[in-house]
Design brief:
This protein has five helices and six strands. The longest helix is centred in the N-terminal third of the chain and has 15 residues. It starts with a strand and ends in a 28-residue tail after the last helix.
Length: 155
């Protein structure tokens, strides 16, 4: 069996402790708890010393998680409390080069490293959607076959 890994990146408009980021900072732990209790959630990378994970340069906030399948990830991201926060992302984050999210399948129990996730996103940006790294709208099955758009949310 395979699990779906996802990474997304964003650049904050201000330091995390700045008043402009108060809403994001206040919601971060709540959203993490919400994800953990969501059907299909498997794992997410949590930082040891600060509330958010950053890339090696410290410029980007990185969200890295693993889900049972795409419908589970989609339900968490676009329905419920998280969806409301997505509408505010422009208040907290600068426009990000697209795509800012990459997905890929991996063996059950594997946990991607931050470097691997960022490499997958770079691959997607350089080569477009492939079984190695694909987008929210152009996906592949765990076996590497393209998923038809109408089948994205089927369980």
């Amino acid at each position: 069996m395979a699990e779906l890994a996802q990474v997304n990146v964003a650049v904050m408009r201000a330091p995390l402790r700045h008043r402009q980021m108060t809403g994001f900072a206040a919601a971060f732990e709540q959203v993490a708890r919400l994800a953990q209790s969501s059907p299909g959630f498997v794992w997410h990378l949590r930082p040891e010393t600060e509330p958010v994970v950053r890339d090696a340069d410290g410029d980007q906030v990185v969200n890295l998680s693993v889900w049972r399948d795409y419908p589970s990830l989609h339900d968490f991201v676009y329905r419920g409390e998280h969806a409301g926060l997505l509408r505010q992302r422009g208040d907290w984050f600068l426009p990000t080069p697209q795509p800012s999210t990459a997905l890929w399948w991996q063996p059950d129990g594997d946990r991607p490293s931050l470097q691997e996730a960022l490499d997958r996103l770079r691959h997607l940006r350089a080569h477009g959607p492939t079984p190695r790294a694909f987008s929210l709208t152009r996906q592949f099955t765990p076996e590497g076959a393209p998923v038809r758009a109408g089948d994205l949310l089927r369980r």
